[in-house]
Amino acid sequence: MLTKFVSLLWSLFMLTSCVAQHPCDIVPGTFDSWMQGATSIDVVVVGGGASGLSAMKQFQGGKRKVNSVVLLEAQDYLGGRVKTVRTSIEATGKTVLTEDGAEWVHGGRTTDLYRLAKKLNGLAPDTKTWNIFFNRNNGAKASPLGYNIRRNLMKQCETKKIITPYFQKPDKGFGQCFIDRFDQTYKKLKAPAAEKEAWYFYNEQMVNKDQGTDTWLNISARDALNFRGADQWDQWKNGYDTLINYITKSIENSKLKLNSPVCRIHWDNESTDRVLVVTKDGTSYLAKHVLITVSIGYLKEHRELFTPELPTTYTKLLEDVHLGVADKIQLGWDKPWWGNKYLDLTMIWTEKNLPAEQEWLYGIMEFLSIHQYPEMIQAFITGKYAKLMEDLPEETVKSDIMQLLNSVMSKTLQKKGLSAVPEPIFFRRTTWGLHEWSYGSYNSYVSPVGADNGLKTRQPLAKSVKNSYNKQVLIWGGEALSTTRYGAVDGAMAVGKTMAIKIKNLLA
Ligand SMILES: Cc1cc2nc3c(=O)[nH]c(=O)nc-3n(C[C@H](O)[C@H](O)[C@H](O)COP(=O)(O)OP(=O)(O)OC[C@H]3O[C@@H](n4cnc5c(N)ncnc54)[C@H](O)[C@@H]3O)c2cc1C
């Protein structure tokens, strides 16, 4: 009897754990009760990341202030993919600051964001000096000549004249340009033949890193060319959330609702020309316009958010744009064990003999000291390797990465008289691919097929959806809509601002 009961419980457990749960699966109430209890409002902003917050700032300022507005954020903090983490370390009594998401003020020094960061005196001084290593995965020195291949090929493939033939229909993919030019460029660099395959793989992974893609052939060559702005490496000295706190200060507190996931959007109703927006706890709003700033990953994963379904013209576009996965793995010690400076370690895989369960490590190409901590390092991991890593328990990730560090830094350890890399006192890894409010990381990217289908710019994605009353009720926001700065904070902010102005005009 007891055995039967236990087995029943186990079956129930298996059944529930197999069905993916999402906080929005169950919402109390019915359409009628939500309609009855709804608060009338001009605008609902869905999502409190850089884009949604910039829109709110625009609504709250300028000539035509919009007062009847609320921002609904699913999580317990504002910033979304800008997420500064402060951890107190018991062993040292210090608090360290790390970034799960955005870290650098990219885009060059002429962007509004850079100017704002300067005005706020928010940027960290760049006084770092580095211990630079080029190592093979077994610890032997690698030739730095191979390293130049990346910059060299990037420069070529970002040149309009060179990349244009790659997107004359059919779009052949950004990676094809690198593939075609690798051999010749490698030869010119006079880098060792024995490392050629390893630098090829490095190069491929670094391009994947920029987008979070599984393969560099998945990135439309045209979309890659559209992206503008230098990868500036300026950092916020007190965390990226300095920016979020600054924007938030200009917004009335009562208009920002945390822990308020939007779970239902009824955008075309018989009884009203407005949109019914319902949050997880059944709170509802009847809005003239809804600005949706959730990630493209979330939109793809949760189409049931909308009733009726979104028009097929829009859902088709969603099939052509994707959100890549990139994660960070961070480790810290009380002092740097590799030298007395910040670590800059580039590694290449000259030997690929990992057991299947450790193959995710092939996605690691470098370790760099982070923020203002010479004793902390970070590795990026992207695409399919990031997804493999996310499925592993944290302890396994930690022990695998330590094993890799011990191997790749074996010569340095010997020189320092260390038998092994000391046990870290800080460890953190992100899991953006599995994140239930993001489903991906930085760059939304257009596939080659997507570009051929008409996504030559991001404009089609920005086209708002009209209801049966011919009202533009669903307005889109978020980084994915920026043709030139997708996947970046400044791009997300610019889109938020533009869309808020659009809504102001619609309300006028
Ligand atoms: C690992 C990583 C590193 C990065 N590095 C950089 C960098 O160095 N420099 C740079 O410029 N950019 C970087 N980025 C990219 C940058 O963070 C994003 O492009 C930008 O923050 C996106 O802002 P957003 O407002 O468009 O989207 P998000 O920040 O994703 O905001 C969307 C918000 O919507 C919320 N949401 C989702 N679903 C719902 C729902 N149903 N109801 C209510 N709310 C919902 C989410 O919780 C989130 O807060 C990085 C990102 C990652 C992940």
TrEMBL record:
Keywords: FAD, Flavoprotein, Oxidoreductase, Signal. Pfam families: Amino_oxidase. PROSITE patterns: PROKAR_LIPOPROTEIN. Gene3D superfamilies: 3.90.660.10, FAD/NAD(P)-binding domain. Residues 1-20 form the signal peptide. The keyword Oxidoreductase applies. Residues 51-500 form the Amine oxidase domain. InterPro entries: Amino_oxidase, FAD/NAD-bd_sf, Flavin_amine_oxidase, Flavin_monoamine_oxidase. Substrate binds at F380. Its cofactor is FAD. It comes from the Eukaryota. FAD binds at S51, E73, A74, V262. One of its GO terms (molecular function) is primary methylamine oxidase activity. Its EC number is 1.4.3.-. Belongs to the flavin monoamine oxidase family. This is Amine oxidase.
